[in-house]
Amino acid sequence: MSPPRRTLSPHAPLPARDRAARARLMQLLGRRRPLVKGGLVEMARTCGNPNCHCARGEKHRSLYLAARLGPARKMIYIPPDLEEPVRQWLAQGRQGQALLEEMSQASLATLVERKKPTSRSPGSTKERKPC
């Protein structure tokens, strides 16, 4: 007699942890606010004007967003009035990434649990060899 067949149906009930993460992700996406993956980089530069304060050591500070645009990594200048919104977009992007990771871990735990060997029939003494 063969062991019962295990299935990994896409319609199988999700673990509570996965359902909770999905609900939080849907709330995050439902806000219709931008989500950005990247990081902020502050640079200090001189402008080249010999009469400017930067020529005496007080460099001009500017903020850039380091992010991927397609296959290329770009540094996008962020004007001071956009700094706070961009920081919020980055925080929301990190939150979305964390929720996706949580969902992935829950799904992997489900896979490992369902993959565990089922009990063998009483007359079977043969062990499976690992691949």
Describe the 3D structure.
With 131 residues, this protein is an alpha+beta fold. It has helices at 16-30, 83-115; strands at 39-45, 60-69, 72-78. Helix 1 packs antiparallel against helix 2. The two termini are 23 Å apart.
Characteristic key phrases:
three-stranded antiparallel β-sheet, 131 residues, alpha+beta
Radius of gyration: 26 Å
In sequence order, what are the helices and strands, one letter per element?
HEEEH
β-strand amount: 15-25%
**Roughly how many Å apart are the termini?**
23 Å
Count of helical segments? 2
Low-pLDDT parts are none
Shape: elongated
Sheet having the most strands:
3 strands, antiparallel
**Helical fraction:** 25-40%
Strands ordered across the widest β-sheet: 1-2-3
Average of pLDDT: 82
Number of strands: 3
Structural class by secondary-structure content: alpha+beta
